[in-house]
Amino acid sequence: MVSICFINDPDENSQMQWDYILLNFRPDNLYIISEENLEFNRKSPRSKSTVIKSVKDLPKNVPLVVLAPKISEHLQGETSLLEFKHPKDAIYFFGSDNGKLSKEDFKSRKPEHLVYVPVDTDDQMFSFMAAAVVLWDRRVKNG
Question: How far does Cα 138 stand from its chain's mean position?
Answer without folding.
Answer: 13
